[in-house]
Amino acid sequence: MNKNLSMSILLDLYGELLTEKQRDVLELYYNDDLSLAEIAQQYEISRQGVHDSIRRGEEALLKFEEILGLSRQEEQNKKQLEEFKRMALDIFEECKKVSFARNIADKTIVLLEDLDSRLAEYDNSKYLED
Q1: Does residue 7 form part of some domain?
Q2: What crossing angle do the helices spanning 36-43 and 47-68 adopt, rounded to 10°?
Q3: From CA 16, how far away is CA 13, in angstroms rounded?
Q4: Which of 14, 35, 47, 104 is 20 to 30 A from 115 (CA-CA)?
Q5: With contact defined as beta carbons under 8 Å apart, do 78 and 63 qualify?
Q6: Number of domain units in the chain
Q7: Residues 51, 85: one domain?
Q8: By three-state DSSP, how is residue 51 classified?
Q9: Could you tell me which of 2, 65, 58, 49 has the C-alpha nearest to residue 27?
Q10: What is the Cα–Cα distance from 86 to 111, expressed in whole angstroms?
Q11: Which domain covers residue 21, as residue numbers?
């Protein structure tokens, strides 16, 4: 995962724990793609001041992730759902081979649809990248 996406994810997860100014500067930099000069002009501070604020905000976000691990947990949840989907597909394929297992195959289809829906939530969120 590239640094910008990683920081954007951490900002979404932990942004409320930052100071208002740090959060705003990081959002402008990572989410709105403003340059240091553009942010400096908006806040009427030096580019170095913006750079320092971004660096401190990044350090704080990384520390929050180290302690709380929400991003790591989201990635683990997604991997677990993908494994459940793989297992359900295996069950479905085996059930198709046996004529009396139609009931199991039907229930497996419902399970697969639910897993696809849950995985789509991860894919549509900006928290995780494949």
Answers
A1: yes
A2: 100
A3: 8
A4: 14
A5: no
A6: 2
A7: no
A8: helix
A9: 58
A10: 11
A11: 3-68
Q: What are the backbone angles phi and psi of residue 128, rounded to the nearest 5°?
A: -130, 150
pTM of the model: 0.68
The rounded mean pLDDT for the chain is 88
> Are both 91 and 102 inside the same structural domain?
yes
Q: Is residue 130 part of a domain?
A: no
Q: What pLDDT is attached to residue 125?
A: 63
Same domain, 64 and 77: no
User: Is residue 8 scored above 70 in pLDDT?
Assistant: yes
Residues 6 or more apart whose CB falls under 8 angstroms from that of 77 comprise: 122
The closest alpha carbon to 85, from 117, 123, 129, 122, belongs to 117
For residues 110 and 127, give the distance between their C-alpha atoms in angstroms, rounded to a whole number. 26
- Residue 129 inside a domain? The answer is no
Residue 36 placed within a domain:
yes
pLDDT tens digits for 83-111?
Answer: 999 998 888 888 877 776 778 888 888 88
Of 47, 68, 89, the residue at which a domain comes to its end is 68
DSSP state of 27: I
CA-to-CA distance for 29 and 58, rounded, in angstroms? 11
